[in-house]
Specification:
By secondary structure, the protein is of the alpha/beta class. Helix content is 49%, strand content 13%. The chain is globular and about 65 Å long.
Protein backbone atom coordinates (compact mmCIF):
# COMPACT_ATOMS: atom_id res chain seq x y z
CA UNK A 1 0.00 0.00 0.00
CA UNK A 2 1.17 3.55 -0.74
CA UNK A 3 1.94 5.58 2.34
CA UNK A 4 3.61 8.79 3.46
CA UNK A 5 4.11 11.36 0.67
CA UNK A 6 4.47 8.94 -2.22
CA UNK A 7 2.08 9.91 -5.06
CA UNK A 8 -0.96 7.62 -5.07
CA UNK A 9 -1.82 6.07 -8.41
CA UNK A 10 -5.60 5.88 -8.29
CA UNK A 11 -6.26 4.80 -11.85
CA UNK A 12 -3.54 3.81 -14.30
CA UNK A 13 -3.40 1.39 -17.20
CA UNK A 14 -6.70 -0.32 -18.03
CA UNK A 15 -5.29 -3.71 -17.08
CA UNK A 16 -4.70 -2.40 -13.56
CA UNK A 17 -8.36 -1.47 -13.26
CA UNK A 18 -10.08 -4.22 -15.22
CA UNK A 19 -8.97 -7.70 -14.19
CA UNK A 20 -10.97 -9.37 -16.94
CA UNK A 21 -8.76 -7.74 -19.58
CA UNK A 22 -5.85 -9.78 -18.27
CA UNK A 23 -7.89 -12.98 -18.11
CA UNK A 24 -9.43 -12.45 -21.56
CA UNK A 25 -12.77 -13.62 -20.18
CA UNK A 26 -14.70 -11.55 -22.73
CA UNK A 27 -12.04 -11.72 -25.47
CA UNK A 28 -10.60 -8.25 -26.12
CA UNK A 29 -13.98 -6.48 -26.19
CA UNK A 30 -13.70 -4.62 -22.83
CA UNK A 31 -10.37 -3.03 -23.77
CA UNK A 32 -11.56 -2.08 -27.25
CA UNK A 33 -14.69 -0.44 -25.80
CA UNK A 34 -12.72 1.44 -23.14
CA UNK A 35 -10.20 2.66 -25.71
CA UNK A 36 -12.97 3.72 -28.06
CA UNK A 37 -14.38 6.02 -25.37
CA UNK A 38 -10.94 7.38 -24.53
CA UNK A 39 -10.25 8.60 -28.09
CA UNK A 40 -12.70 11.49 -27.86
CA UNK A 41 -13.55 14.23 -25.40
CA UNK A 42 -16.71 16.13 -26.26
CA UNK A 43 -19.96 16.78 -24.46
CA UNK A 44 -21.96 14.01 -26.09
CA UNK A 45 -19.32 11.33 -25.64
CA UNK A 46 -18.95 12.40 -22.02
CA UNK A 47 -22.70 12.02 -21.62
CA UNK A 48 -22.48 8.53 -23.17
CA UNK A 49 -19.76 7.56 -20.69
CA UNK A 50 -22.18 8.23 -17.83
CA UNK A 51 -25.13 6.79 -19.73
CA UNK A 52 -23.09 3.58 -20.03
CA UNK A 53 -23.45 3.11 -16.28
CA UNK A 54 -27.22 2.43 -16.15
CA UNK A 55 -27.08 0.77 -19.56
CA UNK A 56 -24.50 -1.80 -18.46
CA UNK A 57 -25.98 -2.21 -14.97
CA UNK A 58 -29.41 -2.92 -16.42
CA UNK A 59 -27.97 -5.32 -18.99
CA UNK A 60 -26.05 -7.22 -16.31
CA UNK A 61 -29.22 -7.48 -14.21
CA UNK A 62 -31.02 -8.89 -17.25
CA UNK A 63 -28.21 -11.41 -17.84
CA UNK A 64 -28.27 -12.44 -14.18
CA UNK A 65 -31.94 -13.35 -14.50
CA UNK A 66 -31.21 -15.47 -17.56
CA UNK A 67 -30.39 -19.17 -17.35
CA UNK A 68 -28.07 -18.96 -20.35
CA UNK A 69 -24.28 -18.63 -20.22
CA UNK A 70 -23.61 -15.11 -18.82
CA UNK A 71 -20.14 -14.85 -20.36
CA UNK A 72 -21.44 -15.35 -23.88
CA UNK A 73 -24.40 -13.02 -23.30
CA UNK A 74 -22.13 -10.24 -22.01
CA UNK A 75 -19.69 -10.68 -24.91
CA UNK A 76 -22.58 -10.33 -27.34
CA UNK A 77 -23.76 -7.18 -25.57
CA UNK A 78 -20.27 -5.62 -25.54
CA UNK A 79 -19.90 -6.31 -29.26
CA UNK A 80 -23.27 -4.68 -30.04
CA UNK A 81 -22.52 -1.70 -27.81
CA UNK A 82 -19.14 -1.21 -29.45
CA UNK A 83 -20.79 -1.11 -32.87
CA UNK A 84 -23.31 1.42 -31.53
CA UNK A 85 -20.59 3.72 -30.16
CA UNK A 86 -18.63 3.61 -33.41
CA UNK A 87 -21.76 4.33 -35.45
CA UNK A 88 -22.60 7.34 -33.30
CA UNK A 89 -19.10 8.75 -33.66
CA UNK A 90 -19.16 8.30 -37.41
CA UNK A 91 -22.41 10.27 -37.59
CA UNK A 92 -20.54 13.24 -36.06
CA UNK A 93 -23.33 14.42 -33.83
CA UNK A 94 -24.41 18.06 -34.28
CA UNK A 95 -22.39 20.49 -32.24
CA UNK A 96 -25.54 22.04 -30.79
CA UNK A 97 -25.69 19.05 -28.44
CA UNK A 98 -23.71 20.94 -25.83
CA UNK A 99 -24.03 19.51 -22.35
CA UNK A 100 -22.23 21.32 -19.57
CA UNK A 101 -19.30 19.10 -18.61
CA UNK A 102 -16.52 19.34 -16.08
CA UNK A 103 -13.35 17.30 -16.19
CA UNK A 104 -12.89 14.96 -13.27
CA UNK A 105 -9.99 15.08 -10.83
CA UNK A 106 -7.80 12.10 -11.55
CA UNK A 107 -4.60 13.59 -10.14
CA UNK A 108 -4.96 12.73 -6.47
CA UNK A 109 -1.41 12.71 -5.17
CA UNK A 110 -1.75 12.56 -1.39
CA UNK A 111 -3.62 10.40 1.07
CA UNK A 112 -5.45 13.50 2.30
CA UNK A 113 -6.73 14.26 -1.23
CA UNK A 114 -8.00 10.70 -1.57
CA UNK A 115 -9.85 10.96 1.75
CA UNK A 116 -11.44 14.28 0.78
CA UNK A 117 -12.47 13.06 -2.68
CA UNK A 118 -13.89 9.79 -1.35
CA UNK A 119 -15.69 11.52 1.52
CA UNK A 120 -17.23 14.07 -0.81
CA UNK A 121 -18.34 11.38 -3.27
CA UNK A 122 -20.18 9.32 -0.69
CA UNK A 123 -21.40 12.28 1.36
CA UNK A 124 -23.23 13.73 -1.62
CA UNK A 125 -24.71 10.35 -2.60
CA UNK A 126 -25.98 9.58 0.92
CA UNK A 127 -27.41 13.08 1.31
CA UNK A 128 -29.99 12.29 -1.38
CA UNK A 129 -31.53 9.41 0.62
CA UNK A 130 -34.98 10.20 1.97
CA UNK A 131 -35.87 9.11 5.49
CA UNK A 132 -37.51 5.85 4.37
CA UNK A 133 -34.48 4.87 2.30
CA UNK A 134 -32.31 5.83 5.26
CA UNK A 135 -34.27 3.61 7.66
CA UNK A 136 -34.29 0.68 5.23
CA UNK A 137 -30.85 -0.29 6.56
CA UNK A 138 -32.44 -1.64 9.75
CA UNK A 139 -34.45 -4.31 7.93
CA UNK A 140 -31.52 -5.19 5.65
CA UNK A 141 -29.18 -5.66 8.59
CA UNK A 142 -31.75 -7.58 10.59
CA UNK A 143 -32.33 -10.10 7.78
CA UNK A 144 -28.59 -10.56 7.22
CA UNK A 145 -27.96 -11.14 10.92
CA UNK A 146 -30.82 -13.59 11.31
CA UNK A 147 -30.12 -15.61 8.17
CA UNK A 148 -26.55 -16.08 9.37
CA UNK A 149 -27.66 -17.10 12.88
CA UNK A 150 -26.15 -14.06 14.59
CA UNK A 151 -27.89 -13.44 17.90
CA UNK A 152 -28.84 -9.77 18.03
CA UNK A 153 -28.80 -9.97 21.83
CA UNK A 154 -25.01 -9.88 21.51
CA UNK A 155 -25.20 -6.16 20.70
CA UNK A 156 -28.03 -5.36 23.11
CA UNK A 157 -27.09 -2.28 25.18
CA UNK A 158 -23.47 -2.61 24.01
CA UNK A 159 -21.16 0.24 23.02
CA UNK A 160 -20.85 0.19 19.23
CA UNK A 161 -18.56 1.86 16.69
CA UNK A 162 -19.53 2.23 13.03
CA UNK A 163 -16.13 2.56 11.33
CA UNK A 164 -16.90 4.63 8.23
CA UNK A 165 -20.54 5.50 8.78
CA UNK A 166 -21.15 7.56 5.64
CA UNK A 167 -24.59 9.12 6.11
CA UNK A 168 -25.14 7.16 9.32
CA UNK A 169 -27.86 4.79 8.21
CA UNK A 170 -26.23 1.64 9.60
CA UNK A 171 -25.23 3.42 12.81
CA UNK A 172 -28.90 4.18 13.32
CA UNK A 173 -29.86 0.65 12.26
CA UNK A 174 -27.64 -0.83 14.97
CA UNK A 175 -29.23 1.46 17.54
CA UNK A 176 -32.73 0.50 16.42
CA UNK A 177 -31.73 -3.18 16.68
CA UNK A 178 -30.98 -2.79 20.37
CA UNK A 179 -27.42 -1.50 20.72
CA UNK A 180 -26.50 0.95 23.46
CA UNK A 181 -24.38 4.01 22.67
CA UNK A 182 -23.57 4.05 18.96
CA UNK A 183 -20.80 6.20 17.54
CA UNK A 184 -20.35 6.66 13.80
CA UNK A 185 -17.11 8.04 12.40
CA UNK A 186 -16.40 9.25 8.87
CA UNK A 187 -14.05 11.66 7.11
CA UNK A 188 -16.83 13.30 5.08
CA UNK A 189 -18.14 16.64 6.34
CA UNK A 190 -21.21 16.16 4.12
CA UNK A 191 -21.80 12.68 5.53
CA UNK A 192 -21.49 13.72 9.17
CA UNK A 193 -23.74 16.76 8.66
CA UNK A 194 -26.39 14.67 6.90
CA UNK A 195 -26.20 11.93 9.56
CA UNK A 196 -26.73 14.46 12.35
CA UNK A 197 -29.63 16.05 10.47
CA UNK A 198 -31.45 12.75 10.00
CA UNK A 199 -30.86 11.57 13.58
CA UNK A 200 -32.15 14.89 14.93
CA UNK A 201 -35.25 14.61 12.74
CA UNK A 202 -35.88 11.15 14.23
CA UNK A 203 -35.37 12.40 17.81
CA UNK A 204 -33.13 9.41 18.37
CA UNK A 205 -30.90 9.42 21.44
CA UNK A 206 -27.75 7.41 22.04
CA UNK A 207 -26.30 8.03 18.56
CA UNK A 208 -23.31 10.28 17.95
CA UNK A 209 -21.31 11.15 14.85
CA UNK A 210 -17.68 12.27 14.79
CA UNK A 211 -15.41 13.31 11.92
CA UNK A 212 -12.50 10.90 12.13
CA UNK A 213 -10.11 8.98 9.87
CA UNK A 214 -10.97 5.26 9.83
CA UNK A 215 -7.26 4.49 9.44
CA UNK A 216 -6.33 6.52 12.52
CA UNK A 217 -9.18 6.25 15.02
CA UNK A 218 -9.07 8.68 17.92
CA UNK A 219 -10.31 6.13 20.46
CA UNK A 220 -8.25 4.29 23.04
CA UNK A 221 -7.50 0.58 22.82
CA UNK A 222 -10.32 -1.80 23.83
CA UNK A 223 -13.03 0.90 23.70
CA UNK A 224 -15.96 -0.88 22.04
CA UNK A 225 -17.99 -4.07 22.50
CA UNK A 226 -18.89 -4.23 18.81
CA UNK A 227 -17.12 -2.63 15.83
CA UNK A 228 -18.97 -2.52 12.53
CA UNK A 229 -17.12 -1.82 9.27
CA UNK A 230 -19.43 -2.13 6.31
CA UNK A 231 -18.01 -1.58 2.83
CA UNK A 232 -15.52 1.12 3.76
CA UNK A 233 -11.91 -0.02 4.01
CA UNK A 234 -11.71 -1.14 0.37
CA UNK A 235 -12.01 2.56 -0.56
CA UNK A 236 -9.03 3.62 1.57
CA UNK A 237 -5.32 3.79 0.79
CA UNK A 238 -4.49 1.07 3.35
CA UNK A 239 -7.21 -1.46 4.11
CA UNK A 240 -4.82 -3.47 6.33
CA UNK A 241 -4.33 -0.44 8.57
CA UNK A 242 -8.11 -0.14 8.78
CA UNK A 243 -8.41 -3.74 9.96
CA UNK A 244 -5.65 -3.13 12.51
CA UNK A 245 -7.53 -0.10 13.85
CA UNK A 246 -10.79 -2.04 14.01
CA UNK A 247 -9.14 -4.73 16.11
CA UNK A 248 -7.26 -2.22 18.27
CA UNK A 249 -10.37 -0.43 19.51
CA UNK A 250 -12.39 -3.65 19.93
CA UNK A 251 -12.53 -5.04 23.46
CA UNK A 252 -11.21 -8.57 24.12
CA UNK A 253 -14.18 -10.90 23.81
CA UNK A 254 -16.03 -8.33 21.73
CA UNK A 255 -17.39 -8.88 18.23
CA UNK A 256 -16.37 -7.32 14.94
CA UNK A 257 -18.15 -7.15 11.60
CA UNK A 258 -16.25 -6.54 8.37
CA UNK A 259 -17.45 -6.31 4.78
CA UNK A 260 -14.90 -5.93 1.96
CA UNK A 261 -15.57 -6.43 -1.75
CA UNK A 262 -14.70 -9.76 -3.22
CA UNK A 263 -12.24 -11.23 -5.65
CA UNK A 264 -13.16 -13.14 -7.76
CA UNK A 265 -16.38 -11.27 -8.39
CA UNK A 266 -17.68 -12.68 -11.66
CA UNK A 267 -19.61 -10.69 -14.23
CA UNK A 268 -20.95 -8.34 -11.55
CA UNK A 269 -17.53 -6.90 -10.71
CA UNK A 270 -16.13 -7.25 -14.23
CA UNK A 271 -18.83 -4.90 -15.49
CA UNK A 272 -18.13 -2.38 -12.73
CA UNK A 273 -14.42 -2.43 -13.51
CA UNK A 274 -15.17 -1.74 -17.18
CA UNK A 275 -17.35 1.21 -16.16
CA UNK A 276 -14.63 2.49 -13.81
CA UNK A 277 -12.18 2.54 -16.71
CA UNK A 278 -14.65 4.25 -19.04
CA UNK A 279 -15.50 6.88 -16.40
CA UNK A 280 -12.08 7.36 -14.83
CA UNK A 281 -12.14 11.10 -15.65
CA UNK A 282 -15.86 11.69 -15.25
CA UNK A 283 -16.89 14.52 -12.95
CA UNK A 284 -19.02 13.19 -10.11
CA UNK A 285 -21.53 16.03 -10.10
CA UNK A 286 -21.99 15.65 -13.84
CA UNK A 287 -22.63 11.92 -13.37
CA UNK A 288 -25.18 12.52 -10.59
CA UNK A 289 -26.96 15.14 -12.70
CA UNK A 290 -27.15 12.81 -15.71
CA UNK A 291 -28.54 9.99 -13.57
CA UNK A 292 -31.13 12.32 -12.04
CA UNK A 293 -32.14 13.49 -15.53
CA UNK A 294 -32.83 9.84 -16.38
CA UNK A 295 -35.27 9.79 -13.44
CA UNK A 296 -33.56 7.09 -11.39
CA UNK A 297 -34.46 7.04 -7.66
CA UNK A 298 -31.76 8.15 -5.21
CA UNK A 299 -31.01 4.69 -3.85
CA UNK A 300 -30.58 3.35 -7.41
CA UNK A 301 -28.22 6.22 -8.26
CA UNK A 302 -26.17 5.37 -5.17
CA UNK A 303 -26.10 1.69 -6.14
CA UNK A 304 -24.81 2.46 -9.63
CA UNK A 305 -22.34 5.27 -8.86
CA UNK A 306 -21.02 3.82 -5.59
CA UNK A 307 -17.99 1.84 -6.78
CA UNK A 308 -17.85 3.16 -10.34
CA UNK A 309 -16.73 6.64 -9.27
CA UNK A 310 -14.84 5.87 -6.05
CA UNK A 311 -11.13 6.83 -6.32
CA UNK A 312 -10.02 3.49 -4.83
CA UNK A 313 -11.87 0.18 -5.12
CA UNK A 314 -9.72 -2.65 -3.75
CA UNK A 315 -11.08 -6.17 -4.25
CA UNK A 316 -9.85 -8.94 -1.96
CA UNK A 317 -9.89 -12.71 -1.68
CA UNK A 318 -11.35 -14.58 1.28
CA UNK A 319 -7.87 -15.73 2.31
CA UNK A 320 -6.40 -12.22 2.20
CA UNK A 321 -9.06 -10.94 4.59
CA UNK A 322 -9.00 -13.92 6.92
CA UNK A 323 -5.20 -13.80 7.18
CA UNK A 324 -5.26 -10.10 8.00
CA UNK A 325 -7.89 -10.61 10.69
CA UNK A 326 -5.91 -13.45 12.26
CA UNK A 327 -2.72 -11.38 12.19
CA UNK A 328 -4.49 -8.72 14.24
CA UNK A 329 -5.90 -11.06 16.87
CA UNK A 330 -9.28 -12.11 15.48
CA UNK A 331 -10.70 -15.48 16.51
CA UNK A 332 -13.74 -17.58 15.53
CA UNK A 333 -13.85 -15.95 12.09
CA UNK A 334 -17.03 -16.82 10.21
CA UNK A 335 -17.72 -15.75 6.63
CA UNK A 336 -21.44 -15.25 6.14
CA UNK A 337 -22.90 -17.26 3.25
CA UNK A 338 -26.35 -15.68 3.30
CA UNK A 339 -27.88 -12.24 2.88
CA UNK A 340 -31.03 -10.42 1.84
CA UNK A 341 -32.66 -11.65 -1.35
CA UNK A 342 -30.71 -9.35 -3.67
CA UNK A 343 -27.30 -10.05 -2.09
CA UNK A 344 -24.89 -12.00 -4.25
CA UNK A 345 -24.11 -14.55 -1.52
CA UNK A 346 -27.82 -15.24 -1.15
CA UNK A 347 -28.17 -15.87 -4.89
CA UNK A 348 -25.22 -18.28 -4.64
CA UNK A 349 -26.84 -19.93 -1.61
CA UNK A 350 -30.02 -20.39 -3.65
CA UNK A 351 -27.98 -22.01 -6.47
CA UNK A 352 -28.79 -19.47 -9.15
CA UNK A 353 -27.72 -20.86 -12.58
CA UNK A 354 -24.13 -19.89 -13.48
CA UNK A 355 -23.74 -18.36 -10.03
CA UNK A 356 -19.94 -18.48 -10.01
CA UNK A 357 -19.70 -16.84 -13.44
CA UNK A 358 -22.17 -14.15 -12.40
CA UNK A 359 -21.02 -13.40 -8.85
CA UNK A 360 -17.68 -15.06 -8.15
CA UNK A 361 -17.64 -15.84 -4.42
CA UNK A 362 -20.21 -13.22 -3.40
CA UNK A 363 -19.85 -10.55 -0.72
CA UNK A 364 -17.04 -10.94 1.81
CA UNK A 365 -18.91 -10.40 5.09
CA UNK A 366 -17.23 -11.65 8.24
CA UNK A 367 -18.13 -11.83 11.92
CA UNK A 368 -15.42 -12.57 14.49
CA UNK A 369 -14.23 -12.25 18.09
CA UNK A 370 -11.19 -10.58 19.52
CA UNK A 371 -8.93 -12.91 21.50
Amino acid sequence: MVKDNTPIQIISDNKDIVDCIGTNTYDNLPEILINEFSKYDNSFINFLKVFSIPLIFNKVEEIILSENNPIELFKSFLNDYLIFIKDIKNEKFPQYFNLVYWNGNNNLESESEVKMETGSHYGKLFKEFNINQFLEAKSLLEVRFKRNNFDLNIIKDKRVLDQGCGGGRYTVALKLLGAGDCIGVDYSDDGIADANYKVNSLNLEGVKFIKNDVLNLEFEDNSFDFVFSNGVLHHTTDWQKGVSELMRVLKPGGYGFLYLIENPGGLFWDSIEILRAINKNTNKKFARDVMKSLNYPNNKIFYMLDHVLAPINTRLTVNEIENELKKNGADKIIRWNRGVDFDRVEKLYQNLPFGKEKFGVGENRFIFNKI
